[in-house]
Amino acid sequence: MAFINLLPWREEAEKAQQREYFTLLTIVAVIAFALVFIISQFYQMRIDGQNSRNQFLKTEIGLLDARIIKIKDLKEKKKELQKRTQVVEQLQRSRNVGTQVFDEIAKVVPNGVYLTRLEKQGNSIKIIGKSESNNHLANMIREIERSLLFTDAILESITTNEAKNKLLSDFKMRVRIKGLLNSGDDGKVITNGDKS
């Protein structure tokens, strides 16, 4: 029987298998690298897109913050203008108050009541005077409550000085002027003399 040497054929088959293995390994490595590269590029594109959106949002937020600051400034200016307008309106309403007060006092003070002193304190007037009877004071309070200018008449005191004159009693009354803000003006208007 003849002997056939299969060793070169086996070596050649093993080398072919190794070449196929390395070729297949190279192809798998290239495909894996390509897949990793494609996936990393996809996620990098998404990250870049998100970063650009974040930058756009930051820019828009900065613009909105600037607008908010302008709006706050405008609101403060509006409040200042409203305050000024209210002061002007208040001055407009109260510029003739002195004349109106004296005119209204002439209407509400009945016969038998004599005023000796008027004091304006803010938006109220303190009336000091003399009265022939308590009925006259009651009539005066009713007239004040019906008045378009005065309100909240408060009779603080009625005193009779028997040593001087039994016919007249001294009184103090406080009334409020409608529609006037309490400006803190403590200026006094003092009238000496009698008003009937």
From TrEMBL:
Transmembrane domains' residue ranges: 21-43
GO biological process, one term: type IV pilus assembly
InterPro entries to which the protein is assigned, alphabetical: Extracell_DNA_Util/SecSys_Comp, PilN
Coiled coil ranges: 64-94
Keywords: Coiled coil, Membrane, Transmembrane, Transmembrane helix
Alphabetical list of Pfam families matching this protein: PilN (PF05137)
Tagged with keyword Membrane: yes
Record-given protein name: Pilus assembly protein PilN
Species of provenance: Colwellia hornerae
Phylogenetic placement of the source organism: Bacteria, Pseudomonadati, Pseudomonadota, Gammaproteobacteria, Alteromonadales
